[in-house]
Structure formats: C-alpha cells, structure tokens
C-alpha cells in the first residue's frame, strides 16, 4: 500500500483492497473516504463492500464519488465535513489518489488557506498532477452568478443563495422553515444559516424565490421577507394550486389570487439579480405551478430533474402530470450544454454524500430516467415508480403554509397556531 501523508489528519492513497481495511485501522486511521464512483472498472470493491469493511474495522466511512469533470462545491464540502468530523486521522482514496487529493486542495483554496497558483506545486510536491483542480478554480472564478447551496438533511432539500459578484446583489431560492412534526415545533435554523451567509458576504437580498409550492417542507419565504424586506415571488400558476388545495382543505377564506406573494411571474418573464439577467421558464409536471429560474448560466430546476444518478421528480401530487413533466424537462435540456443545473432535492442514492450541481450536458448523457429514454418510456417509468412512493410525510402540513407564501396559520384565541389535516383526501397511504 502506497500511502501519501498530506497532513497529520489526512493521507491519500490508491484503491485499497478490502483485505487492507483492518491494516489501515491498525495504522491509526479512523475514517475512510471513498472518492471513486462505483463501476469504474471491473474488480473494484464498490461502496457497499467498502462501507461494510470499514464498519467491520471500526472506521467511519464517507462515499463522495467524483470525476474530475463533474466535481462540485458540494463534493468539496462533503470532503471537508468528513475530515472535520473524524475523531482521528483520515485516509482518502480514489483510483490513484489524485481525486482524493484534488478534493482536499480545492477545499483549501475555497477557504482561502491555499492560493490558486499554489495548487499545481502542492500536487507535484505530493507526487500528484492537480491540473484538473487548477482548471476548476479558474473556471469557478469566471462563473457568474456565484451559487451557494445549503442542504437540509431533514428534507433532503437544497436551498440556494445566488449572488452577483459585481454588485453583491443576491436572490434566495427555496428556503426551508424547519418543522419537527413529532413536536409540532417550528424553527429558523436553516433560514438563519442563509441570513448569516448573506450578512457575512455583505450581500443585499433582492429576491426571495420559490420554484413551486413545496409538498415536503415549509417555505421560509415569509420569515426571510420579514427579516430582509426583500420581495417574494413564485410562478403565476400558483393560483391554480391554491384553488386545488382550497378544496382539499375546505378553506373558504383562502384567497386564490396569489396576493400572498409580491410578484407572480408569467412564463418567459425576465428580472435581474444585480447586473445578471434572469428569466422564468414554466416547468409544470411535478406541480402545476413549478417554474425554473434561469439566472445567468445557472438553471434552478428544483423538482424536475434530480442529479443524473437519481433521475427525476415524481409527478403524482394533485395537479402533477408525468407527460407535462417530460415536456418541461425537454425545455430545460434545450438550454446550452454548459448551463449549470441546480436541483432542489437530493435523496443520496447508495448513501453517497449529497450533491446538487450538474450541467445540461451531463444530464443529457447520464440522467438515469432520461438518457436514451423516449417520451412514452419515461411516462411509463415515472407513472409506475410514482405508484410505489408514499406521499411525503409533510404534504398535508406543508401545503396549507406554502399556498400562503410560507405564512403559518394565524394564531387562535390562545395565541397558538394550528394546522388542519384532512382525512382520506389523498391516495398514497402505505399500510
Ligand atoms: N420521503 C420523502 C419523500 C419526498 C418526496 O416525495 N419528494 C418529491 C419531491 S417534493 C420527489 O419527487 N421524490 C422523488 C422520489 O422520491 O423518487 C418525504 O416524506 O418527505
Ligand atoms: Fe417538490
């Protein structure tokens, strides 16, 4: 085993054999990071076997599969987290070790501990060619807007701050208001983390955007509007979603004119984030009101396409439609191949670290529900899969908040707020 020591806390190495795991533990490593996607070559142990062997040797295990061409900030963040969370030294591997070191070096650059020009010499010093890392840093510096994703573990949601480096203006997209259904408790940890990031960077919030009325979490749009004064917005077809849920909740007082938001976007409408042009594409299918925000070269597609290894969003909620989703996805895939695609959920297949950024090109060639799949085949696949999915556990809780732009129900005479849960209103019980 050739193990390269990078620091007291980190070593990198080529693919170890499963039989070497105990010896790695005996050498003092307490965490093993696997940066290699499964099925790269025959005979590779793969994440399931590595996870088992790590557990057997009493090592923590993180699966952060990357390729040089598709590495993202989420992967770098996951690597840093695994390193920070480790009680003892970490050993990280890829096929040769280069990608493991690349993840480390990029984290050092993003945190300002390594200068971009020092990446190549740092690689050489350790016997690795980090030219892919140097190129990544260069490309990122040139990209507009800057996009920061915040992953909410509780709901597998990704919330975004999209900022214009020239003006410091930003938009917040799909923020989450925390809710613990067991205690009926609400909290603003997620939204406050976004605010902290915004303040630390001196950004001014120009927009609070939702891509659709979410069915699995509360929107923090209202809370963030109160905190920042920024206008809220959503696609104009939200009024149809309001009509639908007004019936389900038997809620005559619900206003169904979208007046709960400051702006309702029509298809094709444009707006600005600082100096960056943005436009709104309708993307119905997952919900009637779903939109994609295209801001500079970044498309916020939320629940249409997920990461290529995860496929697409479900289309069986009230107002959902698999064929409509297919058409919306075709519009997204018609954007230039280099367009960055930011998804709204990541359900972490195979236990890999959360990821949320891809490109249109990657989606076209690698999305497991779309690449080489016809419209008919997609509709069949989506419809069949949806029949197997239970409803999101918070759908009935969430919609009554989200069709009012994230306003919680008004307090009753005792000052407490109450949710209303219709019985037998939806299919999808898993008995
Ligand atoms: N288990 C999750 C499921 C949430 C869910 O249904 N998510 C939607 C997006 S809002 C989806 O498209 N899921 C796709 C899938 O699970 O394959 C929950 O209860 O919240
Ligand atoms: Fe959704």
UniProtKB/TrEMBL annotation:
**Which residues are in the Metallo-beta-lactamase domain?**
156-345
Q: Which UniProt keywords apply?
A: Metal-binding
Give the UniProt record's GO annotations in the biological process aspect.
glutathione metabolic process; hydrogen sulfide metabolic process
The protein's name in its UniProt record: TIGR01244 family protein
Query: What is any Pfam family matched here?
Result: Lactamase_B
Alphabetical list of InterPro entries matching this protein:
BLH_phosphatase-like, MBL-like_hydrolase, Metallo-B-lactamas, Mito_Persulfide_Diox, POD-like_MBL-fold, Prot-tyrosine_phosphatase-like, RibonucZ/Hydroxyglut_hydro
What is the superkingdom listed in this entry's lineage? Bacteria
GO-annotated molecular function:
hydrolase activity; metal ion binding; sulfur dioxygenase activity
Q: Does the keyword Metal-binding apply?
A: yes
Q: CDD domains, per this entry?
A: POD-like_MBL-fold, PTP-bact
